[in-house]
User: Fold this.
Amino acid sequence: MLSIKFHKNPERIGGGITEIIFNEHRLIIDLGAELEYEGVEPNPNIDGVTIGKEQCDGVLITHYHGDHIGLLKYLLPEVPVYMSKVSQEIGLTIYDRLKRAKLLASDDKTIDRLENAKLFSYEDFGKDFQIGAFTVRPIRVDHSAFDALAYLITVAGKKIFFTGDFRSHGYTGKALYTTLEKYVGKVDVIITEGTMLSREDETISEKELREKAIDICNEHRYILYLGSSTNIDSLLSMSSAAKLTKKAFCADNFQKEIFKIVAENSKSDFYKNPIHQVKYPQGLVIALRMSQLDFAEAFYKKYGQESVLIYSLWDGYITKKQELQKLQTLWGNRFIQLHSGGHASADDIKKMVEICSKEREQTMVIPMHLENFDFFSKLKLPATVRNLQQSEELLLVP
Ligand SMILES: [Zn+2]
Ligand SMILES: [Zn+2]
Assistant:
């Protein structure tokens, strides 16, 4: 018997837990926390996984974003965790920092689970690993998290492709379709994200972000860049724009630590040296994150007229956070929104499904990590779309 189950609501952006069940074998993909959850999200109470006696072959983690690893703290210690080496190292850097700032509950087990994870490094991507009854192939995909993984899982003669969060418009995104052809091929089931389907904002590529940043750097002396400290591609776009316009690129030690992890694990020179030296800098580009809004405000008091604030996060946060609205008012038309999203466009999803689908709609596509199933049916995919509800068990092989 082979089946698939979502432990949490798939009609929500992030915070998912997916299970593949083969007879007495079980494989979990991601243990995500809900982005919108107020307070501490409770244990999802999955017997054999987060409560009771351990009965699970393993947990595959796609990447280090909280909506994919946020509930790892509840995992029973005997259950093995698998993730990319960069996901582990960046995850540890974030959680260590939270711990030092006393922002982590004293009984939080995330650090233990991350420390004991089994790791896929660059050389392992595209290769097969046996995890219990499952043959698992980690496949590197482009996302706003570095070395994010999709997984091809083969079990009971069926191929299941779990995309995780992905896109084609980052610096390594152009490899998406050839990667899918080479390492995934035709599958029986595709479990895919659909984040962007309900969002109307135009996605700009990392390259376009860099071009726009160069123009901004040419026009202004000081640039504050407010983004995510782990959105490596966008940070590199800014660093590259700074270098070209002879500006120094500044980041704090935490940010430098993140850059170091990426540089050490990447084969590409592009990611090696974001903090470049400029002999006679003609201004500054300063990388900031959400926890440093006070700095931004203080900076405005001194250099407000000579500076620009580039806002490079989801625009929904502006409506939710008063501090951001305040900064927007301060900078006025020099508060510039420039964000290259981390998720697949409708076109990316269509092409991915075309590449991985068998003829005559034999392939089943199961959407998740999206606001609403309705948007998905409008894509008119050459496959059978199956809306799987929370806790429903979809039988693939009786
Ligand atoms: Zn996500
Ligand atoms: Zn993500």
